[in-house]
Amino acid sequence: MSVRKSESHNQFETLNWLNWWFKTKQVFSCTLNENLQRRNSWQDGLSGTNCPIPPRKNFTYVLQVKDQIGSFFYFPSLAMHKAAGGFGGIAIWSRPRIPVPFPPPAGDFTLLAGDWFKRNHTYLRAILNRGHKFPVPDGLLINGRGWNGYTVTVDQGKTYRLRISNVGLTTSINFRIQGHKMKLIEVEGSHTLQNTYAALDIHVGQSYSVLVTADQPAMDYYMVVSSRFTKPVLTTTAVLHYSNSFRGVSGALPWGPTDQIAWSLSQARSIRWNLTASGPRPNPQGSYHYGLIKPARTIRLANSAPIINRMQRYAVNSVSYVPTSTPLKLADYFRIGGIFNVGSISDYPTGGGAYLQTSVMGADFRSFVEIVFENSETTVQSWHIDGHSFFVVGMDGGQWTPASRKGYNLRDTVSRCTTQVYPKSWTAIYMALDNVGMWNIRSEDWARQYLGQQFYLRVFSPANSWRDEYPIPKNALLCGKAAGRHTRPL
């Protein structure tokens, strides 16, 4: 696969995905985690929006990266293909005349870290298909390598940018560098207050950018990734190599947190938006003043792990999502009945028994909503919303109530698209529904997503205007009950 780094501008970027299962009979699809796909859920790359790419075929996605300056990544989205790799980083740069709130670094490195399983993706999928729980990871990798398998070379005295993404399947991680501090500068396309950290928690699906200055004696240093909230604690390392060093890595690995939820919660609350940065900000209805907008609707989403038909499933508001052979976006566009029903998932936890359903929630274009993720389980959750950025206004332990709003940050919380929810806790977000389309809301824990912890949000505009949503692509793949139909001539 190949993807080119991009500057943020009004033009479209063309990404060519080669079917990486070229010599097999498997189909393939890919999604860009954290890219907003403005007015273009046609290109979202999920089973609810796109048909899979047939074997031995190519497909070209055309997308807009306007106002999304920062660090992102892509990955295979079907089945458990993500467990086989195929993911990569995307760096979207600012235009030369739009300054960023830090001096140009001497170098720019992408670090893709995450959990790793000895068993291949077909075996892992078979485990889930049999209704069993996912196994514990066998280890962690950094850019596809194990212990000290990857090296970043720096010049003493210079400052470098590290773009760190958690591309794993199930595991939150902590990242730190022996003898060095990290200055946080960006989270999923939002410039942050430049706080300094010795260690950073990065949950599944999240991306962070930090500046690191090579201000230590000339030698090699460990870059450490360890698992969070797991037993046993998994660890791997890469090497920060000073170009004038003749000494390899040595000494003990720097300390990292293991199961301290309060530590992680405190750090998450410390990440704030840089309101003085001159780069683009998401601005639907002036929503960078999000604290002055009253939400028109509150949606409460509770995750659960029910047993349905004697098999392990995962659910949202008691509904465990079932994919269809016809993508929901195509069924909606061609008005094909019997595929899904809008309103097939409730706005709030019902407390009823869990069941299987192709769940779609309806929403109005340009509405401003409050969403509360409620986690009554003992594991950390990671939630992602396609097509939108949102403001993480609050998170805390216990049960959310309307009184919890008194503790919201209504001024400078960071805007992002993936957020964690700690065990026995809640996380609240504000979000402007400024993007028409069929958008996936899912767990970034890929086993939970595969077994139903997801649904689709249909953001609808009655105008049916190209101003609100781009037309169906000419090269759109058509499958299921949409097979044999036509896209558009122009």
What does the model show?
Residues 28-95, 108-245, 326-460 form the Plastocyanin-like domain. This is L-ascorbate oxidase. Belongs to the multicopper oxidase family. This protein is mostly beta strands and 490 residues long. 6% of the residues lie in helices and 36% in strands. It is built from 4 helices and 34 strands. The strands form 8 sheets. Strands 7, 8, 10, 12, 13, 14 and 16 form a 7-stranded mixed sheet that branches. Strands 22-19-27-32-29-30 form a 6-stranded mixed sheet, with no helix packed on it. A 6-stranded mixed sheet has the order 24-26-34-33-28-31. The chain starts with 5 loop residues before the first strand and ends in a 30-residue tail after the last strand.
- Parts with pLDDT < 50 across at least 5 consecutive residues: 1-25, 283-287
Mean pLDDT figure:
90
Please, how many helices? 4
Overall geometry = globular
What fraction of the residues are assigned to beta strands by DSSP?
35-45%
| Alpha-beta content class | mainly beta
Percent in helix = under 10%
Total number of strands: 34
Computed CA radius of gyration, to the nearest angstrom? 22 Å
N/C terminus separation: 28 Å
Main β-sheet: number of strands, strand sense, barrel status?
Answer: 7 strands, mixed
